[in-house]
Amino acid sequence: MILTRPQPKSFHVKSFGCQMNVYDGDRMSELLTGEGMVATTSDAADLVVLNTCHIRERAVHRVYSEIGTLKREDGTRPMIAVAGCVAQAEGAEVAKRAREVDIVVGPQAYHRLPELVTAARSGKAAIDTDMPILSKFGALPVRSKGQRTSAFLTVQEGCDKFCTYCVVPYTRGAEVSRPFGAILDEAKALVDGGAREITLLGQNVNAWDDNGIGLHGLAVALDKIPGLARIRYMTSHPNDMTQGLIDAHRDVEKLMPFLHLPVQSGSDRILKAMNRSHSRDSYLQLLDRVRAARPDIALSGDFIVGFPGETDADFEDTLSLVAEVRYAQAFSFIYSPRPGTPAATMCDQIPKEVMGERLQRLQAVINTQQHAFNVASVGTQTNILIERAGKLPGQMLGKSPWMQSVHIVQPGIVVGDLIDVAITAAGPNSVTGTPPEKRKAA
Ligand code: 5AD
Ligand code: SF4
């Protein structure tokens, strides 16, 4: 192979989409740093990695328009790698559709990025969309210093549920759990590297298992790591919510009182067409059990509006479910037909205007609930983990155990501090925390 292009000396990784992409992006950065490359901005980098999302059509469009804009300050084009789920779903087509692309690497193959960079130096696009999930983790370098205060740790990948609207089973493959020991080692390395909170990630994270340990057993083990203050996990499927995991919300001290449990629709007819394999009632009963174990738990969900065949009555069922649950926060999306999924070819696709109206109505209800949740916390005392500086001078931003963003102004606090505060004011998207000294002085 004749190498006509120079070895990149600097790189920039840009991640789109979910938290798992943030995790993968961090691991790619650590890998490239280990190869002697230096992280820099996208307009200076010799190599730009776009870590892409394929879940909705809009996410895919963003990637292709981003590729067109990639130019360095000196007017030359960097080496461009398309990683993530668009790479997996479209493979070599990516390089055909966007001729600027030099590397296409799927989410299970990015440990081979250094070899692909070498191959691309020949001037020919290098493609790797193999799916050997566990060998990826084994081949990546151990986690380095300088980790995020709130770090992600992928413990499970892929999905066997095949909801009829979703590309994940095709882009991330079958459900695979990483081994218990490897996860524990990585968690300890993250804490050594500065993490105080770990969010366990998986497309079906609560399906994680290694010889019957289950996610609750993993939480118990992580609870014992000195220096780790908080444990979270996402995203879960209702059918994998075991009693053990529910009980862990009562028994495991560091497991935070927050549960992201998507339901997608409140209509049994639509849930069936979505192949969700749970009903509205079974979901509500499950939440009753979760609340019995942990009464203060904050609930979050995902919703799709405008799934094929969704009638006004079906949508009203979704609104009534939301009213019944009282979410602390939730995400809602307009249905996006994805190539290759069963729902994309179902008849009765819903007109755009109808979907838009339904989304607005649903989001208005969810926003009201989120605000109400924040207002209800005013007057309570809690502790927050400081994650970053705020926009105003002297302001820092932290998270409450219930995932609320908390603004605080207090000299001397730094990222990574866990501090006690009183919640003194609430807005729709955040609350204000006041430190103990100020409260005494007031
Ligand atoms: N259209 C719209 N939203 C989708 N989601 C998954 N697939 C689609 C789609 N085709 C949403 C679901 C899921 C979240 C991650 O994205 O609500 O829980
Ligand atoms: Fe997609 Fe359904 Fe699997 Fe979630 S459970 S990743 S929505 S197929």
Automatic annotation (TrEMBL):
[4Fe-4S] cluster 2 binds at C159, C163, C166. [4Fe-4S] cluster 1 binds at C18, C53, C85. Its EC number is 2.8.4.3. Residues 145-372 form the Radical SAM core domain. CDD domains: Radical_SAM. Keywords: 4Fe-4S, Cytoplasm, Iron, Iron-sulfur, Metal-binding, S-adenosyl-L-methionine, Transferase, tRNA processing. Residues 375-437 form the TRAM domain. It catalyses: N(6)-dimethylallyladenosine(37) in tRNA + (sulfur carrier)-SH + AH2 + 2 S-adenosyl-L-methionine = 2-methylsulfanyl-N(6)-dimethylallyladenosine(37) in tRNA + (sulfur carrier)-H + 5'-deoxyadenosine + L-methionine + A + S-adenosyl-L-homocysteine + 2 H(+). Binds 2 [4Fe-4S] clusters. One cluster is coordinated with 3 cysteines and an exchangeable S-adenosyl-L-methionine. GO terms for cellular component: cytosol. Its cofactor is [4Fe-4S] cluster. GO terms for molecular function: 4 iron, 4 sulfur cluster binding; metal ion binding; tRNA-2-methylthio-N(6)-dimethylallyladenosine(37) synthase activity. It is found in: Cytoplasm. Residues 9-122 form the MTTase N-terminal domain. Belongs to the methylthiotransferase family. MiaB subfamily. Monomer. PANTHER family: CDK5 REGULATORY SUBUNIT-ASSOCIATED PROTEIN 1, MITOCHONDRIAL TRNA METHYLTHIOTRANSFERASE CDK5RAP1. Catalyzes the methylthiolation of N6-(dimethylallyl)adenosine (i(6)A), leading to the formation of 2-methylthio-N6-(dimethylallyl)adenosine (ms(2)i(6)A) at position 37 in tRNAs that read codons beginning with uridine. This is tRNA-2-methylthio-N(6)-dimethylallyladenosine synthase.
